[in-house]
Amino acid sequence: MPLLEIRDLTVRFAAGKGEARIIDGLDVRVGQGEMLAIVGESGSGKSVTALSIMGLLPEQARVGRESRILFDGVDLLTLSPAAMRARRGKEIAMIFQDPMSSLDPCYTIGDQLIETLRAHQRVSRAEAWRQAVALLKQVRLAEPERRMKQYPHQLSGGMCQRVMIAMALITHPRLLIADEPTTAVDVTLQAQILALLRELNQQMGITIIMITHDLGVVAELCQRVLVMYAGGCVEYSGVEALFRQPRHPYTLGLMNSRPTLARIGQTLTPIEGNPPDLARRQPGCQFAARCPQAMPVCRHDAPALNPVADDHWTACFLAEKKAP
């Protein structure tokens, strides 16, 4: 049984007089100890998927009646707010996209780490302090005892990112969701954070979902990848198979639009057009308006997510054995 299984997740947000279907029938399976990457352009639904798992969707969001988010066999969508709070932070933790705004500016780093630990475990403040300092050392934050007494504004963005990782790990969660953990950090710090996440996965066995738009990070760190577009899955595969032979035009477009050492001097090929307006979804494949290989059938029929090779699924008529 997978540690996490999402079945037919649909999330709608109020948009004017109507609704925007931000997540549209998403299915995901994440095994114990796996590192799964979720990639896609901004607005594809990556962060909303993470917030759905964490039970942190805003009040105006509405989850579909048939949706299921099973964590270790328990449907998180059926839990009471108190029961979800007990799991959130203890068994499921998240590193948010902007560490500077995720930390409370009115409390020291130590107070925030200690509060997180004592909310889920019965430990003295002295023991919580000891564990917090040890964890700051583990995430390679220099002078951890001094940092415990400082406020977020006294730390750099990279330091705050390490604090956020420590805060997520302090209760030893089984699932860690990292939402763009290397955003707005330099290349050296990015490499250090990725090395730390790899260590957490390989040595501590923590299952990690990495949300990113950086395919280089995916290739270096993850075993499996889910490509999202317009709130749905368009391709799902092992990382090696995806990079060796992407089967969806959108995935191929993402790869062709990124700079690599092998393409120095070559012109990048952008994906033409703009993402669809999710409040005014058109029939058929949501990528059809931007797809250079779109067929007439793509304009009125939505392709299902089907296997196209061993352990490789794609939602595209072109990838099927017999295209209509």
CATH C-level class = Alpha Beta
Overall mean pLDDT stands at 90
Structural class: alpha/beta
Tell me about the biggest sheet? 8 strands, mixed
Helix and strand element order: EEEHEEEHEHHHHHEHEHEEHHEE
From the coordinates shown, what is the CATH architecture?
A: 3-Layer(aba) Sandwich
- How many helices? The count is 11
Strand order, main sheet: write it out.
7-8-9-3-10-11-13-12
Low-confidence stretches: none
How many domains comprise the coordinates?
A: 1
Q: Give the CATH topology.
A: Rossmann fold
Determine the strand fraction and express it as a percent band.
15-25%
Helix content: 25-40%
> So what's the overall shape?
globular
Name the CATH superfamily assignment: P-loop containing nucleotide triphosphate hydrolases
Number of strands: 13
Q: CA-to-CA gap between the ends?
A: 35 Å
Rg is 21 Å
Task: Please provide a written account of the structure.
This protein is of the alpha/beta class and 324 residues long. Helix content is 32%, strand content 23%. The protein contains eleven helices and 13 strands. An eight-stranded mixed β-sheet has the order 7-8-9-3-10-11-13-12, with helices on both faces. Strands 1, 2, 4, 5 and 6 form a five-stranded antiparallel β-sheet that branches.
Compact overview of the structure:
Helix content is 32%, strand content 23%. It contains eleven helices and 13 strands.
Features:
324 residues; Rossmann fold; 11 helices; globular; 13 strands; alpha/beta; 5-stranded antiparallel beta sheet; single chain
